[in-house]
Amino acid sequence: MKLNNKAGLLVALFAAGMAGAPAAFADGKASELNLHAKKYQQYFAEASAEFNVPVELLEAIAYAETRWRHHMPKGQARKNGEPDVEVDPHGGMPPNYGIMGLRNDSHFGTSLVQAAGLIREQPATLLSSTRANIRGAAALLAYHGARKTRAFPLEDWERAVALYSGIPQPEIAQLYTYEVFTAIRQGREGADYKIRQRHVEMEKIYGRDKLKKLAAPRITVETGVPDPKISVPDFQSK
């Protein structure tokens, strides 16, 4: 699989959020959530009800983007006792912000500003408040869902999740949505996050042929960033 420079950059940017921590697959072992993660579960449930979007998608997007760790600009660590991760806007690739991985750059777009506008808050509030970050992300997902509600099958939300990602290339956006829906289908559990396992018709979303490619053995791609290699499905495999 060969990528041009633009595609390689997008894969690298995508990997910054998706590969931030090792995946934790559901294995039947119970994990006790920490107090912050339990609070975030409440925020997810509240935002799901307020904006009528599936709570599973909010939880899985937060897992894919940040592993439920709030991302703050470097030098702006919060003082409310909640854990956060400092991200550097000048670190070589555009960062994502908050627990929901909202963006504000020329590659992935301005989802941070869009989300803030939808809930009538300032972008700075979504940077500092986990609850506001989740509310803004839920409002943005509802906007991209084009009148879909929680009553719709999860599979019908794939396009909304792809639009939420801000990734302009369809194949790379499908990498993103595949990871989100796989997290729901398999379940994810650790001290910092929990996505309850729920059946998802993956073939209904992607079709048989594309699903085979998305689930294919991973290949290594050079990205040209300080951690230069990531693993992605081989879209050209037969």
Notes on the structure:
- The protein is mainly alpha-helical.
- The protein has a single domain, classed as Lysozyme.
- Helix content is 46%, strand content 9%.
- It has 10 helices and 6 strands.
- A two-stranded parallel sheet has the order 1-2.
- A hairpin with a 4-residue loop joins strand 3 and strand 4.
- Helix 4 packs across helix 6.
- The longest helix has 17 residues.
- The protein starts with a helix and ends in a 5-residue tail after the last strand.
- The N terminus and C terminus are likely disordered.
- It comes from Massilia agrisoli.
- This is Transglycosylase SLT domain-containing protein.
- InterPro entries: Lysozyme-like_dom_sf.
- Keywords: Signal.
Provide a short characterization of the protein structure.
This is Transglycosylase SLT domain-containing protein. Keywords: Signal. With about 240 residues, the chain is mostly helical.
Write the layout of secondary structure elements.
Layout: H1 5-18, H2 35-51, H3 55-66, E1 70-73, E2 84-87, H4 111-118, H5 123-128, H6 130-144, H7 158-165, H8 170-186, E3 188-189, E4 194-195, H9 202-206, H10 208-214, E5 218-222, E6 229-233
Parallel strand pairs: 1-2
Antiparallel strand pairs: 3-4, 5-6
Helix pairs in contact: 2-6, 3-8, 4-6, 6-7, 7-8
